[in-house]
């Protein structure tokens, strides 16, 4: 059976050539459109150039005319001289150097006042340790003191939320002073982060007033050290 179409007259053979030709034509038109330039009329430039120079100068002189400031004459104030008969008291300067008439005090004439030093006795060597409230009747007051301290820490312990979010944990070494009146004095702390240190100091600041420690029958300051551990579950 013979084909109905003539292969020599098939238009699809040259379709790619026609496509390339059309694409080049479109690109040429776009290039001409982008490179097209238009210029404004120079009529206003000519009008400005034809302006009379004398008119411009007159306008500038009127606009920038400088007014001279009025100078006011200022007269000096009248100076009055008044007589003052008041007497002037002279300051007498007394020499601090010793002379033959200077009285010299002997050592026996001086009163010596003894100022007692602040005594601080170590927790281990003190004769009578401070007594935590509730341990007055206990025989071993040291052990009772340690137990009551642990209870106080567990009762007032609050793990800082920000420290939990940051994943902070560790041991905070603390030391505080039990004053001669039984109050809590200076609190020192050292730990892995300031948030944990501040929480440890807050717990110790809530300690109750205690019976002060005694050394040779006298109330003394007693330092006490205890670690507080912060551990995430």
UniProtKB/TrEMBL annotation:
Where would I find the TonB C-terminal domain in this sequence? 144-233
Task: Spell out the molecular function terms from Gene Ontology.
Answer: energy transducer activity
| Compartments (UniProt record) | Cell inner membrane
What membrane topology term does the record carry?
Answer: Single-pass membrane protein
Q: Which keywords appear in this protein's UniProt record, sorted alphabetically? A: Cell inner membrane, Cell membrane, Membrane, Protein transport, Transmembrane, Transmembrane helix, Transport
Q: Name one GO biological process term.
A: transmembrane transport
By what name is this protein known? Answer: Protein TonB
Organism listed in the record: Maribacter arcticus
